[in-house]
What we know:
Blueprint: H1 9-18, E1 25-31, E2 40-43, E3 54-59, H2 65-73, H3 81-84, H4 88-92, E4 100-104, H5 110-116, E5 123-128, E6 133-135, H6 152-155, E7 159-163, E8 166-173, E9 182-185, H7 196-200, H8 218-231, H9 238-253, E10 264-267, E11 277-282, E12 285-288, H10 294-313, E13 325-329, H11 338-351, E14 355-360, H12 364-368, E15 374-381, E16 384-389, H13 399-405, H14 418-428, H15 435-448, H16 457-477
Parallel strand pairs: 3-14, 3-15, 9-13, 13-14
Antiparallel strand pairs: 1-2, 1-5, 4-8, 5-6, 7-8, 10-11, 11-12, 15-16
Helix pairs in contact: 8-9, 9-10, 14-15
Amino acid sequence: MTVMARTSKKTQVVEESNKMPIAYFTSLEVENVFCFKDRQVLDLSDQNGNPAQWTVILGDNGVGKTTLLRCLARMEPYIEPYFARRVPDYTSGTLSRDQMMLPLFYFLSDEELGTLLYQSKVKINAHLIYGASLNLNDFKNLSPDIINSQTEKKLLQFLINPSSSTERSASPCKKNLFELKCYGYGANRKMGNTSLSEFLSSDRTSTLFSDNADLINAEEWLLQTDYAAVRSQPENNQFQRRFNLVKEILIKLLPDVHKDVDSIRIAPPTDEMPRPTAEFHTHYGWVSLSNLSLGYRSVIAWMVDLAARMLERYPKSDDPLSEPAIVLVDEIDLHLHPKWQRTIMSFLTERFPNTQFIVTAHSPLVVQASQNANIVLLRREGDRVVIDNNPEIIDNWRVDQILTTVFDLPSGRSAKLDPLLEEREIILTKSHLTQEDKARLNAIAEEIGDLPTGETPEDIRAMDIIRRAAKLLEQQEKP
């Protein structure tokens, strides 16, 4: 089911109450961007042209998976501070002209800026569900020292603005695209130590671009929200609802946490611990958040981060987590146990029904669980990378079949057996087998043991041919 196909009464009420356009990506076009030298299109829609709720991007390390997520993240418009000070419409919130900007290549370093930013052949285009197109193909370069009243009109169309050690180039976009908001999570999803006020004003996609960026201080959020709930009036306690909502998510998501409503608590200060702490009731007893495993802390960090941001974005909604959103996750399977890898997508689909997830992965278990998702494979061909949309129909495939076909492994067996399997294949391709060949095949068979049938798609097709041939022979032998 696609994101936009969900037209329940609940969704309609949510949309009407917030009065903002629903924006989802349907495709991304890149050309001359790092390894994507030729024009490549990342399809983010389903077979009916609607935005798919899930797109899973696969490929070897270094083929541009993270680059695609970064390009999508930087399609979000922003208000240029220079004009916020000079154009009254910015501060009033009633933009009447094309005065918002789309940042271009904010994720590039100075050296990369020198090679890419000023190349006219660079193209990054994203298409949205309601027909708008974010086009970062056309841009011009203006030196910051010529900003004045004469150039202000021109700068409303094209702008380069210095920002720390990098530069940003921008092109104009329409007012309604300002509601396009992405939440991005890089492979380094660690909890921060900043205050909640600093967190809410921080970049929603910063961990996609920097290994030093942090997510929300999840424990601090739980502590402050619980404290606010205790001090609020019971009849209108939005903080208690927020706390319960996030607590429910974590209890359902974390495998080793007991599945009752009291499995997460705020423990009071003690002599050993002079401040309150968030604790989780596991099979091993009560464990503080800081003592949970890295995988648990990583998932808690980005789950609380996403939930907190959506709660802030949709404060009047009865169910903020069911509101529209776009979430980009790099290596969604990172630190997850295989059982968890198979269930993470279904859980997120259920809890965030109107969120478009665009993720990268290395796990065949995630691919196996992606029955209704777009599967995209990035392939290296010479000195460039091509985007293969929906490379294989993987419905009901086993993990070993996904490994050999989608991930291009020679087999699903131990790597030490690969030379033996290759040798066996070479011998079997001979038109005539010698006694020495037969002896070697027997020796290989004893060493590797019996091979299961259907190890690869080729094995399945071969077994199908054998079965049909056997059936034909059986029919011919009948009187």
